[in-house]
Amino acid sequence: MKYLDEFRDPVLARRLLDEIRERVTRPRVLMEVCGGQTHSLLRYGIETELQGNVELIHGPGCPVRVTPAEAINFAQELALQPDVVVASFGDMLRVPGSTRSLADVRGAGGNVRIVYSPLDAIELARKKSDRHVVFFAVGFETTAPATALAVLQAAALGLDNFSLLVAHVRVLPAMEALMAAPGCRVQGFLAAGHVCTVTGFEEYDDFVRRHRTPVVVTGFEPVDLLGGILDCVTQLEEGRAEVTNQYARSVQRSGNVASQDVVGQVYEIADTPWRGLGVIPAGGYRLRPEFQMFDAAYRFADVASQQVTNSSVGNSGSSECHSGEVLSGRLRPIECPAFGTRCTPESPLGAPMVSSEGACSAYFRYQSQAGR
After folding, report:
1. What is the 8-class DSSP label of residue 47?
2. Are residues 326 and 298 in the same domain?
3. Sign of CA dihedral 99, 102, 104, 110
4. Alpha-carbon distance 231 to 130, whole Å?
5. pLDDT of 153-175, one tens digit each?
6. 188 lies in the same domain as 225
7. CA-CA distance, 49 to 52, in Å (whole number)?
């Protein structure tokens, strides 16, 4: 428990740990949805402290790790086109597609720029009017409002040299897919607080009612997570299944309505491939027809049709990467034969080891706490 001493309230953290142990009458299996939660659980030794009481399965994690190889391949081909600039957040550069990454393509002469917001990409398009700027729009519901606003701004400015490669995904449909998967062992979910700041948590009511599975919205600090785990196991022990909010300082039941409105104005819900899980019904967003001129797949349809893909939609990149089994809880990262040997952050086989929030990256960084 020495790792909890890094936190500002280790006394409360220890008390919550003790309450969880006292409350659990048999081992419980919970899934945290967000990679930021995964890193906190491992960094502070919470997973280790709860062994024998609560098994934590590390779910979808972050949008970087679930972005399909097909989308990354397309971004790579665009970066190699004359007069095209691909703008991306930095954490996407090292994620492998079918055979290489955006960083590899940049090293080979492709035009790839790191930006810190979609508005940076808008400004790049304004300054480089002789280039077409494609922003790689990756993220959960948390980042979709910002890219939607970028589209609206591009439209207002009349920017003809700006488009999005849309790879936004939605969390709840992925939870549905995981619950429907054969052998699913998840008994309760720790929902991602940052996603719920946008979406709220009303939409989880029907999910909980149908699956009889508790969903607890929680944050990312140790006491946030421990409070969420305690709430979840208490419901399970009492035979209840409810949606509760342990992150009230940031999340409201209805979420951020203004953000939801701008997303609905620009995007529509669509079946979307998730890396390791395949195509998930209603699993993401696509631009509405009225904004088609800002869709890179439409603007560069010839490139999309010509790109060479060595694997099916939703694959994991390397055949050695077991990302689908990891994010569905069928395999712990340290149980993968390649973990820490052929697959490391410096030489990753798949997205879960590349992403700063990926489960494999978390286990590699904190593997002494994770029981390796």
Report:
1. H
2. no
3. positive
4. 56
5. 999 999 999 999 999 999 999 99
6. yes
7. 9
